[in-house]
């Protein structure tokens, strides 16, 4: 038996004609094993391309934020000392500006935690008909049912029915996943809109910092 996948879908299933002599329950079990094995082989096994786990990435960003906060504090203190020694008046006008991305980091971490906090292992996609299937995230084929009538027409017809049933279950699983994520604020459109907003906020912060530094420099000159 040979199952062919493409683009996350089952596109062909070759069934040995000898298997058609077995009871439909046996056929369903053998076919399910072959299809699920194909799904398992199609999943990436390359350790050089690690999967991104949103919750783990959120923890890493918290550590990055703490390090950047410490570095910016040291840099600001150093600039303040230098500016105070070089300023023409009683000090740097308006003080030394700071580049604070802490709030943006918090919002990004919150977004990642929202994405990673949406459970999906309990989701199931189903299809109905002469051949019915149940698929789980992964994707995995967790159940396949073949009725006696589905055996009519030979292995080619049965293979076509299995392909349709499995793909319908996968489509149902994807729809349920999108619905749950959208309901939790982690839908694709919601996430992309949030990323665009954070990008704009970051650009505004950088612009304000550059303007603040320019103002600071105008107040610095030789003593005289």
Which class do the helix and strand fractions yield?
mainly alpha
Distance between the termini: 91 Å
Q: Tally the helices: what do you get?
A: 5
Low-pLDDT windows of residues: 45-50
What is the number of strand segments? 5
* Gyration radius from CA atoms, angstroms: 29 Å
Describe it for me?
With 224 residues, the chain is mainly α. It is 57% helix and 12% strand. The protein has five helices and five strands; from the N terminus they run ββαααβββαα. The longest helix is centred in the first third of the chain and has 33 residues. The termini are far apart. About 3% of the residues have low confidence.
Keywords:
single chain; three-stranded antiparallel beta sheet; 224 residues; 5 helices; 57% helix; mainly alpha; 5 strands
Topology:
Blueprint: E1 2-6, E2 9-14, H1 24-42, H2 54-86, H3 102-116, E3 125-126, E4 131-136, E5 140-146, H4 154-183, H5 188-218
Antiparallel strand pairs: 1-2, 3-4, 4-5
